[in-house]
Amino acid sequence: MDRTDRDLLSALRRDGRASLSDLAAGLGISRATVRARIEKLETAGVIRGYTVQTAQDLQDAPVRGLMMLSISGPGAERVMHRLTGHAAVTRVHSTNGKWDLIAEIGTETLEAFDKVLFEIRRIDGIETSETSLMLNTRKGGRRA
C-alpha cells in the first residue's frame, strides 16, 4: 500500500459516499485509477465493507462508553464470546498492554449503562475493569 492508497482510504473515511470523480479530483488522479485502487483494496481485504451511521443509531444508545477488561487465566476467548452476545455491547476488541479486551457499550440511560457494567463484571474470568464514558465523537462520521 502506497501513499495514494493511504490518501484514498483517508478520503473514504471522511466521506464514504464520495463519488469517484470527487475522490479523483481531491487526490489528483484519474477516475479509472481511483476505481482500480478501490477494487484492489477490496480484493486484498483492506476495505472490508461500507456502513451508514444514522441519527437513530445515537438516539437508540446515547450513553456510550469503553470498558477495558483484564482477564485472569486463559479465558479471554470465552469472555469475548460472552461479551459479543450481550445486546448492549456493540464491539469487542482484543488489545495489548494493561488491558486484554475493550468492549464498546451503548445504552439508552445511565442506569441501563450501570446495569450492563455490573453484568459484565460478574462474568467469570474478568479480573478487573475500567470504564470511560464517551462524551462526544469527533471522527467516524459526519457531525450534524
Can you walk through the features of this model?
- The chain is 42% helix and 22% strand.
- Strands 2-3-1-4 form a 4-stranded antiparallel sheet, with helices on one face.
- It has 2 domains: 3-43, Winged helix-like DNA-binding domain superfamily/Winged helix DNA-binding domain (Arc Repressor Mutant, subunit A), CATH 1.10.10; 55-134, Lrp/AsnC effector binding domain/regulation of amino acid metabolism (RAM) domain (Alpha-Beta Plaits), CATH 3.30.70.920.
- Helix 2 crosses helix 3 (31-43).
- The longest helix has 13 residues, at 31-43.
- It contains 6 helices and 4 strands.
- It is of the alpha+beta class and 144 residues long.
- The model has no long low-confidence stretch (mean pLDDT 88).
- The protein has helices at 3-14, 20-27, 31-43, 55-60, 76-84, 110-121, and strands at 63-71, 89-94, 101-107, 126-134.
- Strand 2 (89-94) and strand 3 (101-107) form a beta hairpin.
Write down how many β-strands occur, each being a DSSP E stretch of 2 or more residues. Answer: 4
Beta-strand percent range: 15-25%
CATH topology of the largest domain: Alpha-Beta Plaits
Shape: elongated
Count of DSSP H/I helices:
6
CATH class of the largest domain: Alpha Beta
**Number of domain modules:** 2
Major sheet, described briefly?
4 strands, antiparallel
| Widest sheet: strand ordering | 2-3-1-4
Structural class based on helices, strands and sheet pairing: alpha+beta
